[in-house]
Design a protein that fits this description.
Length: 232
């Protein structure tokens, strides 16, 4: 399934063991509904690692990257709730990017997702994207069990702004500049094998990508949408 809009917030992180129960309660009951309640936000999803350097992956979809740079979102991330202050203190090793959706395609939302964080030199960014769209992306979409393929590119300036929520976490954000997402709907073992093969560092390097390459493999836990939030 194509992503819901042209903007996205992509977040990877670990959680300290003592904060795990609070994280699950806060994230599902308060934080995700709060986020999709922001004007221009459309959908939020959370995944947990099958095999990844960071245990959780969160994806928020918005109408545009301008929504993510706008006053409504800024007001929210700079006025954390008391529960947010308590929960985010348990975050560890955060990678976060405010992104433009450079490409999105696919027939469905999958229960599995592979995320690849990497870099591309600015002078070959257009050529790299064109090469992906000529080869890797259509090849993946033609593979049985692949539900969607999405390419995100970070807005470095917007991603680098230190918000009150970030300060409450007490850890700096790494900002991945390029993110490739592949969704799947089949068995974990087959999907993991496909992702490791098709998203190998060598394959992206041949198209101009640069490391470090961070491949994460995740299963879906929760989706919250604006419709569900509005109805509640």
């Amino acid at each position: 399934m194509s992503l819901a809009g042209e903007g996205a917030v992509a977040i990877w992180h670990d959680i300290a063991p003592e904060g795990r129960a609070e994280f699950y309660a806060w994230h599902g009951e308060e934080h995700m509904p709060e986020r999709v309640g922001i004007p221009g936000f459309l959908r939020g999803r959370r995944y947990v690692a099958i095999d990844a350097d960071l245990e959780f992956f969160n994806l928020y979809e918005a109408q545009s990257v301008e929504v993510l740079k706008g006053q409504d979102y800024a007001a929210r991330v700079n006025a954390p709730t008391p529960w947010t202050f308590s929960a985010v203190k348990h975050f560890r090793s955060v990678a976060r990017a405010i992104c433009r959706v450079s490409h999105t395609s696919g027939p469905a939302q999958g229960g599995l997702i592979a995320t690849l964080r990497y870099d591309v030199p600015d002078n070959i960014a257009s050529a790299h994207k064109a090469a992906l769209l000529r080869g890797l992306v259509p090849d993946l979409l033609a593979t049985r069990g692949v539900a969607g393929v999405h390419l995100l590119t970070a807005d470095a300036q917007a991603s680098g702004i230190a918000t009150a929520e970030q300060k409450a976490r007490g850890v700096d954000n790494a900002v991945p500049r390029w993110v490739l997402l592949v969704e799947g709907w089949g068995d974990e073992a087959e999907f993991v094998a496909l992702a490791r093969d098709q998203l190998a560092a060598e394959a992206l390097q041949a198209l101009g990508g640069e490391g470090p390459f961070s491949l994460g493999l995740y299963r879906h836990q929760i989706t919250r949408t604006k419709t569900a939030w509005s109805a509640g």
